[in-house]
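Researcher: Dear colleague, please comment on this protein.
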Amino acid sequence: MSVRIVHVIDGLGSGGAERLLTVYATKLHRIGHDVHIIVLNDRNGNPEQKNIQAAGIPTSLVPVGKLRNFSEIRNFFSELKALKPDVVHGHLQFSSILCSLFGWRRAVPSVATVHTLEGPEMANRDGLRRWLMYKILERFCDRVICLSKTAEAFARKNGLARARIEVLPNGIDLAVFEPRSTSERHALRATLEIPEGVPLILAVAVLRPPKGIDRLIRALPTICETIDDAQLLIVGDGPERGRLEQLATDIGIRDRVTFTGQRADVPDLMSIADVFVLPTLDDAQPTVVMEAMASRLPVIASRVGGIPDMIADGVDGLLVPPDDVAALEAAVSSILSDPARQADVAAAGRATVEEKFSLDRQVERLTGLYEKLLEDSKRV
C-alpha cells in the first residue's frame, strides 16, 4: 500500500532531527511511498536539503517565521492542502503544531515526533511554545511518537498525559556503517594529519552548550597522562566552536585537538576512531550514539535522557554521570588502555543496534502506523 506522506520540519539544519528525517524519508521513498517535505525556515542554508533532493524527494520552502503571522499560516495550510496528503508528519515545534491543526481541520491523519526531552516553561518564549505544542498535540494529534520509554514517561509527566503516544526508537541504515578498508582509513587519517597508531577519541555534535564538549576537552590532559599520544577529533560546528578552540589553547592541548567543522562523511570518520564520546548534558535519543555503535566503536556517553535505554552500562557501552570530567577521564582512559575490552564493548554495541535500531525495522513499524491511521480514518 503506497501512502502519500508529507513531512513538515521547522528547518533542515544539521541537528539530529533533521538528519533523521533525511534517512527516514529516503527509505520511505525507496520502498514505494510518495514522500514530500515542507520546510518552514532556512536554518544555516538548510544543508540537509541537498541530501533529501539527491534522493529524489521533492521539498518546498513554505515560510512560517512566527505562529502569530496568520497570513503565513494560511499560506502553509493552502500549500499543504494542495499536496493532498494521506498523512502529515510534523517534526519540531512549529511543524508539530501546524500539522496537528491541519490534520484536525482537514480530517487527515496527523503524526508528530517529539525529538527532545524538554518540558514547557513559562519563563521564556521557547518554553511557552513547547507548552502550546504539548497542548495541541494532546488534543488534536492522532499519534505522538516518543523515542523511548523514558521519553514517553517524561512527555506524559510534562503535558502529554492524555496524548495517544507510540514509542518508536530512531533507526539507522546499518549498511552505511560497515568497516572501511585499511587503505581508506590510512588515507583519511593522513588528510587530517593524524598518524596511524595514535589512539583517536571522536566526538560528533552540534557545538552548543548542552552537548558538553567542553567537559571532554577538559578531560583530555588527564587522559593523555595515561594514553601518551591520544588525540581528540571534534566533528561539527555551532556557536560554541570559537570558545571550545580557545579552551583547548588555554589548557595547553590545542595540538591534540582537531576541529573539522561540519562534515558529510561522518561514517568514514567513525571508521578511523578508537572510541566515541558524547558528554551531553541532556538528550532524548541521540542518533549519533547508534551510528557509533553501528560503526563498531566503543561508546562512552552521559547517563541522561533516553541514553540509558540505548546502552547497557559496561556491556555495549559505558555510561558516565553528566558534567563529570573525572568520570570521563577514567572511562576513556580505561577503554583505550584495554584493547580486549574495547573490542568486546564494540562488538556488543553493533549487536544491540542490529537488534533494536535497524532502519528497516523501524520504517516497517512507521509504515504500519501510517496505514493503521488511514484505515481508522476511513471508518469514521
